[in-house]
Design goal:
Blueprint lengths: L17 E5 L4 H11 L3 E6 L16 H5 L3 E6 L4 H12 L3 E4 L5 H4 L4 H7 L4 E6 L13 H7 L2 H5 L12 H24 L4 E5 H8 L1 H10 L15 E6 L5 E6 L2 H10 L3 H4 L7 H6 L1 H12 L4 H11 L2 E4 L10 H5 L3 E5 L5 E5 L23 H7 L4 H9 L3 E2 L1
Parallel strand pairs: 1-2, 1-4, 2-3, 4-5, 5-6
Antiparallel strand pairs: 3-12, 7-8, 8-9, 10-11
């Protein structure tokens, strides 16, 4: 099944930039996705049998389908001599290479930065790993591993029950840091004419996410409690059960919010209570105050709480599930979902890159590709004729 071009990306900022992507799972493909959505021409290089991510089940079921739109698929045996010749020719004309293989893999295959930068001095080589330089750098790591060792799982779960975040937050954020480094390197190359090596890593990304908590610990000189046990900076900033057995999050982050909250829920008694005058006063009185708010909230339905908060311009949120996002009014009417044809034939809506940038349209140019869907096209652009391409296919070096 061939991809369908839904829209052209008009004026996309990275048009004309060519990316070779040696990736799998989430971190590398997420980095490539952002570059592709911003207009770069991204070639996802996978073995003839296909990227192993395509075959994942469980929570991995959606990985390939989400992180590989707007990319071409070149299915080729990069370990073979003939495959290596093709890759080296592609490297000569590439702007960026992104890889997230295990430590030392690209070097062992002959595709390390030191080798390829000689072939193409303008190449920006982005390596996405478990760890940056240091004692751990040769270790393998995964998102959940670094969430555990970097303090994120401790901060997420209740006391004594470390819990990973509900999405691949470190993989995705690490890929984003890779993109930041790539964009900085592109800017530098415009000045120097030379490419460079960029590296992002899961563990150090997790440590960066923990920075605010590390600063808290340094200032208070006390052990940092996990989020479920924390004393919030705001007196009302939590989920409340409703009369109809649902839940709504309500957050008050200013004295104006507090005043509007009291008026919206007919609690002038709280507004006039000297014990509750300021946010810090209300935090000091939390032992009786928060149970009182909980009791009050349980007298209203979910719809009633949302209506009152919205009318009063108070921060609130219903507790959504992933499948609820398909019908979210903001995402649909705001144009933040892209109609996408997945490799298994499923048609669905998936989130676009969350940016607005002048008149740029970050849209769908290619659906997630079938294995080797663009192999013939890419090899043809390199100058290989039909006979040469057919010979590579017969030797199982490529798949089309």
């Amino acid at each position: 099944m061939k991809n369908e071009t839904e829209k052209s990306v008009h004026g996309a900022p990275l048009q004309g930039i060519t990316v070779l992507e040696f990736t799998h799972a989430v971190m590398g493909p997420a980095c490539g996705l952002l570059l592709a959505d911003m207009g770069a021409s991204v070639m996802h290089i996978e073995p003839p049998e296909g990227d192993s991510t395509r075959r994942l089940r469980g929570f991995g079921t959606g990985y390939f389908s989400f992180y590989n739109r707007n990319k071409q698929s070149l299915a080729i045996d990069i370990k073979s001599e003939a495959g290596k010749q093709v890759i080296m020719r592609l490297v000569e004309g590439a702007d960026i290479l992104v890889e997230n293989f295990g430590p030392g893999t690209m070097e062992r295959l002959g595709y390390g930065y030191e080798t390829l930068s000689v072939l193409n001095p303008r190449l920006i080589y982005c390596s996405l790993k478990g760890f940056l330089s240091g004692p751990y750098e040769k270790r393998h790591a995964m998102d959940e591993v670094v969430q555990m060792m970097g303090g994120l799982a401790y901060m997420t779960g209740p006391v004594g029950m470390p819990l990973r975040a509900g999405t691949s937050v470190v993989d995705i954020t690490g890929g984003m840091f890779g993109v930041i480094g790539i964009l900085a390197a592109l800017h530098e190359r415009n000045q120097t004419g030379k490419g460079t090596f960029v590296k992002s890593a899961l563990f150090e990304t997790t440590a960066f996410l923990m920075g605010q908590h590390m600063a808290y610990g340094a200032i208070t000189k006390e052990p940092v409690p996990p989020m479920p046990a924390r004393v919030s900076a705001w007196s009302v900033y939590r989920t409340f059960d409703t009369k109809d057995g649902d839940a709504v999050f309500v957050g008050l982050i200013s004295e104006k919010h507090w005043e509007r909250f009291c008026k919206a829920f007919d609690r002038d008694d709280w507004l006039n209570d000297e014990r509750l005058t300021t946010n810090n006063d209300r935090i000091a009185e939390r032992e009786w105050f928060l149970p009182a708010v909980e009791t009050m909230m349980r007298t209203f339905t979910k719809a009633e709480i949302i209506s009152r908060c919205e009318e009063a311009d108070i921060t609130f949120a219903p507790i959504a599930r992933p499948e609820d996002l398909f019908d979210d009014v903001q995402l649909n009417e705001g144009g933040s979902l892209l109609e996408t044809l997945l490799p298994d034939g499923t048609r669905t809506k998936l989130p676009k890159i969350p940016l607005e940038m002048g008149g740029t349209e970050f849209s769908l140019t290619m659906n997630p590709p079938q294995i080797g869907e663009h192999t013939r096209e890419i090899l043809g652009d390199l100058g290989l004729d039909d006979t040469e391409i057919q010979a590579l296919e017969e030797q199982n070096i490529i798949k089309m």
